Amino acid sequence: MSLWTVILAGGVGSRFWPISTPALPKQLLPLVTGEPMLRDAVNRLLPLVPGERMLILTNATLEPAIAALLPEVPAANIICEPRPAGTAAALAWAARIIESRDPSAIMLSVHADWAIGDADGFRNALLRAANVAEANDALVTVGVTPTRPDPGFGYIEPGERMGQVAFRVSRFLEKPDRVRARELIAAGCLWNSGIFVWRASRFLKEVAAHCPEVARANDETTLEGFFGTVQSISVDVGVLERSDRVFVVPGAFGWDDVGTWAALRRVRPGDAAGNALHGDVTPMMASGNVVHADGTSVVLYGVSDLVVVAVNGLTVVTTIEHASDLKTLIDALPTRLKDRG
């Protein structure tokens, strides 16, 4: 089996403002380990897939930084989307490239900004999914076994069992409220991780059959022409929810999509009081806080469940609960503060 990897590394990570910016977004920051998140993603995959069989999908602004960060990935494999057009278009273009170079290839699609607690378990889940994709000529997603009723994730309802490790997907469910999330977990639903595995050629056939938003660009032969023609749509909505060839393989490997500052409390090593700290931070009678201090000192006293970010002379203080809504804050700020990030 010939494996290729596509790593989605676009986006600006606005929920990690003020340290994540268009010029240096969260996938290029060391938020979980001492390495940038994209570097961590590549390191996890190198035991399965060599750098010459990795494609990095990003935007032109980030190309120089990514090329410097990933010397093992050929420059031709760093694909700069001319405009954001959704994951269906991005993965279709990547599948075109892979099929042209390796017609029988199995394509693994992951994101650059995840935390993975068990790298061996992650790779084993990808291999299980690849075997299922190859044996069944199917589109396979890895559904993560939930560890809490999280309203921040989509869910997958497994249906008919297909062999020893896979199920046919019954349906995809949008992000629920916490009560509904608890019900879905009790019913055996899995988190929709966004990990996808399929033969590149099969995915392109499913796009042609079910996703006119992207298929309308099938005659376009250039990157600019393709992205100038497609309609933006996610791969979940445009392909997976419309196809009858979608399987799910469950997995448990400490996955987290690190979508907000609050997520760092789950993925960074904490102190005895559950504080996730970076920089010169002194907590006293403080618990469950996330603090990121660059070039300054922060003292916490008698507070809990706060997010404190101090960088470039700017200090942002919010709560764990409100950390997911930083975009609303950014939109309301005067330009002089937005630009301080």
Q: Which stretches are low in confidence, meaning pLDDT under 50 for 5 or more residues running?
A: none
- By DSSP (H or I, 4+ residues per run), the number of helices equals 12
Average pLDDT, all residues: 94
Helix percent reads 25-40%
Distance between the termini: 45 Å
CATH topology (level 3) name of the largest domain:
Spore Coat Polysaccharide Biosynthesis Protein SpsA, Chain A
Radius of gyration: 20 Å
CATH superfamily of the largest domain: Spore Coat Polysaccharide Biosynthesis Protein SpsA, Chain A
What can be said about the biggest beta sheet? 5 strands, mixed, barrel
CATH architecture of the largest domain: Alpha-Beta Complex
Structural class: alpha/beta
Number of domains: 2
Question: Element order, helices and strands?
Answer: EHEHEHEEHEEEHEHHHHEEHEEEEHH
Strand content: 25-35%
| Strand segment count | 15
